[in-house]
Design brief:
With 110 residues, the protein is mainly alpha-helical. 34% of the residues lie in helices and 5% in strands. It has two helices and two strands. It has helices at residues 2-33, 42-46; strands at residues 86-88, 96-98. A hairpin with a 7-residue loop joins strand 1 and strand 2 (96-98). The radius of gyration is 21 Å and the shape is globular. Bound molecules: iron/sulfur cluster. Iron/sulfur cluster (SF4) binds next to loops.
C-alpha cells in the first residue's frame, strides 16, 4: 500500500513537472528560431537599430548616444545564449538582434 502511494506521488510529481519543462523548452526553441530583426522595421528604425554600429547614421540625433564598445551583447536587454551571433532582446519580442548590433535604448548590463 505504502509502495503504491509512493509510486503515485512520484507519478504526480513527474506529471506536474512535465508541462513546466515543456514550456521552457518550447520558449527556448521559439527564441532560437525567431526571425532576425529587420533594421527597416518601423520600431527598429525609430530606435536606430543597426546590426553593426559602424553603419550608424551619424546625422540622426538618436545615434549620438552611441559610444565605442556598446553592443547588444553588453546591453541589459539582451537575452539568450552568451556567444550566439543573434539573440532575443527584451525590446523586440519575437525577434533576435545581432549581438554586435546597437540601438538608441542601449543600457549597460549591471
Ligand atoms: S535594447 Fe539593447 S539588446 Fe536590444 S537592440 Fe537595443 S541595444 Fe540591442
Amino acid at each position: 500500500m505504502e509502495k503504491n502511494l509512493t509510486r503515485r506521488t512520484l507519478l504526480k510529481t513527474i506529471a506536474a513537472a512535465l508541462p513546466a519543462s515543456a514550456v521552457v523548452l518550447q520558449q527556448e526553441a521559439l527564441a532560437a528560431d525567431a526571425p532576425k530583426l529587420d533594421p527597416n522595421d518601423p520600431t527598429a528604425k525609430a530606435l536606430v537599430y543597426v546590426e553593426d554600429p559602424a553603419n550608424l547614421d551619424k546625422s540622426n540625433p538618436a545615434a549620438a548616444r552611441y559610444q565605442a564598445g556598446q553592443t547588444c551583447d553588453n546591453c541589459i536587454q539582451i537575452q539568450g545564449d552568451e556567444g550566439a551571433a543573434y539573440r532575443p532582446c527584451g525590446i523586440f519580442p519575437g525577434k533576435v538582434v545581432a549581438s554586435a548590433g546597437w540601438c538608441s535604448v542601449w543600457a549597460a548590463k549591471p
